[in-house]
Design goal:
There is one protein chain. The chain contains ten helices and six strands. The protein is α/β, with parallel strands linked by helices and about 210 residues long. It has two domains: about 130 residues, Rossmann fold; about 60 residues, Arc Repressor Mutant, subunit A. It has a six-stranded parallel β-sheet with strand order 2-1-3-4-5-6, with helices on both faces. The chain is elongated and about 75 Å long. The chain starts with a strand and ends with a helix.
Length: about 210
């Protein structure tokens, strides 16, 4: 069986040594290089073409984002798994956009890291359970907002569009051929349905949701 070749990139020697020992003790893997430098990682990946790169996100001066982007360009066959202290899904999304295949946090277990390596080597994307759980919680928080959006009438959506364009209630009334009072009632109902306190909150909501 051909072993999965791995490059370790982390600015902590103890972490590199620990993972080198763990992975080399498993007959499925062989560590072909290790470095504390993002810049060196690019050179090693370009020459050795490892199957997997375990990439620390937080390094200087070349961080994991830049190293991932460059390795993806010079050695696209090398599949990068980001390893980070950050649990924010935005970090995972950014790394995947730059060409990474996986994202695990430094809270992940040995078994999960090995599972990530195997999955990614088989051509599947991998996000660790910790980040997946945060994404699921965010989805649950956003669902009520989406449901509230679905409760808006066509006229209310028209008014939201004009509010986004910066029109006043009077200007909206003129454009939609509605009285000022009717526009104000619609605005009140929009805020109530979306559970927002005022027009400023509504504008922020519109911009955040890209409406």
């Amino acid at each position: 069986m051909q072993k999965i070749t791995i490059l370790l990139v982390d600015d902590h020697k103890l972490i590199r040594d620990s993972w080198s020992f763990i992975l080399n003790s498993d007959p499925r893997f062989v560590v072909v290089g290790e470095t504390s430098s993002g810049e060196e990682a690019i050179g090693i990946a370009g020459s050795k073409k490892p199957a997997i790169v375990l990439m620390d996100v937080n390094m200087t001066p070349v961080n994991g984002f830049d190293a991932t982007r460059q390795i993806h360009n010079i050695s696209p066959e090398s599949k990068i798994i980001a390893v980070s202290m950050h649990t924010m899904p935005a970090y995972a999304k950014r790394m995947l956009q730059l060409g990474a295949w996986g994202y695990v946090t430094k809270n992940s277990s040995k078994d999960e890291m090995i599972a990530a390596i195997v999955e990614v080597n088989n051509g599947k994307k991998y996000i660790c359970h910790e980040v997946k759980n945060i994404l699921a919680e965010q989805e649950l928080e956003e669902n009520p907002v989406i449901a509230n959006m679905n409760n808006l009438s066509r006229r209310e959506l028209d008014i939201i569009k004009l509010i986004k364009e910066g029109l006043s209630s009077r200007e909206i009334g003129l454009q939609l051929e509605l009285s000022l009072k009717t526009v104000e009632v619609h605005r009140y109902n929009i805020l109530k349905k979306l559970k927002l306190k005022n027009t400023a909150a509504l504008v922020n909501f519109i911009n955040a949701k890209g409406l």
